[in-house]
Amino acid sequence: MRNLGVKDLSFSVRGDGRKGVLLIHGMTGAPAEMRPVARRLHRAGFAISAPMLAGHGADRGTLLKTGWRDWLASARAAYLKLAAEVDEVYVAGICAGGALGLALCAEFPQIKGAAVYSMTFEYDGWNMPKFSAAAPLIQLVANLPLVRRISFEEPYPYGLKDLKLRELASRAPETLIPGSVDRMPMGSLYQLYRLGRHIERIGPGIATPTLIVHAREDDMSDLRNAERLRAALGGPTDLMVLEDSYHMVHVDREHVQVGDRTAAFFGAEATMPVPARETVDA
Q1: What pTM, to 2 d.p., does this model score?
Q2: Low pLDDT (below 70) residues in the chain
Q3: How high is the pLDDT of residue 281?
Q4: Which among 97, 82, 110 is positioned nearest to 213, based on CA atoms?
Q5: I need a surface site. Which of 96, 159, 164, 196 has the fewest CB within 10 A?
Q6: Angle at 275 (CA atoms; ends 274, 280), nearest 5 degrees
Q7: Which of 280, 272, 214 is CA-nearest to residue 32?
Q8: Which residues contact 90 (CB under 8 A, 6 or more apart)?
Q9: What is the pLDDT of residue 11?
């Protein structure tokens, strides 16, 4: 499904033609959020492709016109383009983006490796509203006509332990991640739940080596989501637990470590030294 009338915020960086990484942003997010990890991976020699998912980059109404299969179609098209340009393809994504990467691994077993950041089967982190405990009921009603347009704002601290990024997200979220959607509609939350269940169904058949990255203090999805994903997958997994980040591990305090660990997991020999503080849009 195409994003008609929406500016495409996808980005790509060429490599030497050997290895490339497809970086998939999260639901309500945008490609810009993948730039910190992209920089570390590119310094390690990887080509980068970061597509914008269908329905994203505009508003809640546009997002609600799409579902997880449309998002997967966007990722699939980007994968096929990248696969024609490099010898080996790897996939990495945050939350829904990580799940979409695994869905691609099920379709294309030639994908060499995957990285999943902050997998979310349930919104059960320490900062989630108390009603999240009723997730099974919410999943039953979230896509009903009178319910699906109800939306909610991501609560402070916005998945960020870094105080400067948190303040930026509070004052000017569009500056932090250009193209992101400001609120999550219930109908889109329903699609995220459906995507998670799809991954659990097909997980035993996914043999792709997978790096699972999760913060111990994830404010949105508890660490048990990472363990649940690990149990669902049929291939080898490696779990990286972060001690100084919240949900947005790919931009938070330890994003350099996340990028470098991903690069190493994908077979990079070494990454470049860490420069002065990196920001999302640098």
Answers
A1: 0.91
A2: 1-6, 130-136, 173, 270-282
A3: 39
A4: 97
A5: 164
A6: 95
A7: 280
A8: 19, 20, 21, 22, 46, 111, 112, 113, 114, 115, 266
A9: 98
What would the pLDDT profile of 189-244 be if each residue is shown by its tens digit?
999 999 999 999 999 999 999 999 999 999 999 999 999 999 999 999 999 999 99
Q: Angle at the Cα of 179 (from 177 to 182), degrees rounded to 5?
A: 80
Q: Which residue has the tokens 């997200």?
A: 169
For residue 88, the cross-strand partners are: 19
Tokens found for residue 249: 């591990």
- Name the strand (E) or helix (H) holding 11: strand 11-13
> Residue 215: which of 95, 105, 91 has the closest Cα?
95
Short-list 24, 202, 159, 48, CA closest to 97: 24
Q: 11-13 and 19-24: which strand pairing?
A: unpaired
Give SS3 for 49.
strand
Starting at the edge strand found earlier in the chain, the sheet holding 47-50 runs 11-13, 47-50, 19-24, 88-94, 113-117, 210-215, 237-242
Whole-angstrom distance, CA of residue 214 vs CA of residue 2: 31
- Domains in the chain with CATH codes: 11-265 (3.40.50.1820)
> What pLDDT does residue 70 have?
98
Compute the 3-state secondary structure of the chain and give helix, strand, coil in percent, each to the nearest 5. 40, 15, 45
